[in-house]
Amino acid sequence: MKTYLITGGAGFIGSHLVKKLLSENFKVIIIDNFDGFYDYKIKISNLCEATNTSFEIKSDEKEKNIKEFANFINNSDENITLLNKDIRNFDNLNEVFENYKFDGIVHLAAKAGVRPSFEKPLDYEETNIRGTLNLLELCKKFKINNFVCASSSSVYGDTPKLPFSESDNIQKTLSPYALTKKTCEEMAYLYYKNYAIKVIMLRFFTVYGPGQRPDLAIHKFAKKLKYNEKISIYGDGKTGRDYTYIDDIISGITASINFISQKDKCYEIFNLGNNRVITLMEMVETMEKISGYKSNLEFCDFQKGDMPMTYADISKAVKMLGYSPKVNFEDGIKIFFEWFEKKESSWDF
């Protein structure tokens, strides 16, 4: 039975990955600091869904609730361990590497979001760059040789060619967040080249689905549609994204885990997208159609850091990983709204 360390394992993508790996007889060790970027109770809900358990929050004290939840999860299944740790703290991470044995890492923990990264760029540097460097240093020290890491379509920045290919010359990122992800790719290459750590960097393209963070467009728009609140459209509505359903992303991650385990040497970058562009207005219209709600739109100036278009060339992932996205956008939105309506009525936070 393989054991994998999952950083950010209580988040949107992380919790879905935990569920998938447990179903495939992996052991998982989760590191998550329950960052205050959004309500920590959502992460508790994520892991309850991933582990098919139920946990009652009885206190108003965050740290007490997280500690009790970690004890609950750790006693519910011998194949899962939840550690409330911060990747910025090298000494705490060192204790994890000393006390637990694992075959590899899927590194998902990060400060996320393009627009917020302009407000606190030093926080993004500390978490995304320093945190990743801490993990790579510990991989070197403890001879952990499989490192799968989340990057982002944001790294393509002002790249003029569409669709985006892993071989594109990336020089002009548009946000501090994108710059931190590009730096992580370069740091990981350094550790591959000098210390023979096998690395796969995964450039995720606009992931959505059940469990999506509340600050992301589809989740945010769904709430505004439901309550007839104004939806801000930045620009003319013609900007586009390659929306990728969460199950397809998870299939790409698990394929990467299998791929890297079979290689003696490995440094690869893969786009994980859906290979189709949906414009902002198409997204709103699809959400209206599926939900039955009508939108109340206001058009605003284009936001700094936003990319006009993302579009993934997935041919490399198809060829080398057997990656094959299955869920089209309309079907994915149907599934999302089923989850959203259920959660929106049951959440008390």
Describe the model.
The protein is of the alpha/beta class. The protein has a single domain (3-205, 245-273, 312-326), classed as Rossmann fold (3-Layer(aba) Sandwich). Helices cover 46% and strands 16% of the residues. It is built from twelve helices and 13 strands. It has helices at 12-23, 40-51, 62-76, 90-99, 114-119, 121-142, 176-195, 217-226, 246-261, 280-291, 315-321, 329-346, and strands spanning 3-7, 27-31, 80-83, 104-107, 146-152, 198-204, 207-208, 230-234, 240-241, 244-245, 267-272, 278-279, 296-300. A seven-stranded parallel beta sheet has the order 3-2-1-4-5-6-11, sandwiched between helices. A two-stranded parallel ribbon has the order 7-10. Helix 2 (40-51) packs parallel to helix 3 and helix 8 (217-226) packs across helix 10. The longest helix has 22 residues, at 121-142. The protein starts with a strand and ends with a helix. The model has no long low-confidence stretch (mean pLDDT 93).
Number of strands: 13
CATH superfamily: NAD(P)-binding Rossmann-like Domain
Quaternary organisation of the protein chains: single chain
N-end to C-end Cα span: 38 Å
CATH topology: Rossmann fold
Helical segment tally? Answer: 12
> What's the CATH C level?
Alpha Beta
C-alpha geometry: globular
Question: What series of H and E elements makes up the topology?
Answer: EHEHHEHEHHEHEEHEEEHEEHEHH
Mean pLDDT: 93
CATH architecture: 3-Layer(aba) Sandwich
Helix content: 40-55%
Give the biggest sheet.
7 strands, parallel
Structural class: alpha/beta
